Amino acid sequence: LNGLKGIGGNVYNGTLGIMSVMAPFFIGMALAEERKVDALAAGLLSVAAFMTVTPYSVGEAYAVGANWLGGANIISGIIIGLVVAEM
């Protein structure tokens, strides 16, 4: 069972874990299209703002921890996508 737990964790991080990075992009892009401004720029800026506020230091290595991706950080991703697209 422990072997499957490692595989399941990788599947989670590869699918649902990446959702918190995709949400600001697509929300910012959709809102920008509605406001008739550059949608791609709004999406990219939303992801950049999301990565800026996400803690990225894990011990001695500088990386985004897996606990900050997925459901744990999706709400902040949605809020950032909405705020950045409005700017």
Automatic annotation (TrEMBL):
InterPro entries: PTS_Sugar-EIIC/EIIB. The chain crosses the membrane at residues 12-32, 39-58, 64-85. One of its GO terms (cellular component) is plasma membrane. It comes from the Bacteria. Keywords: Membrane, Transmembrane, Transmembrane helix. GO terms for biological process: N,N'-diacetylchitobiose import. This is PTS diacetylchitobiose transporter subunit IIC.
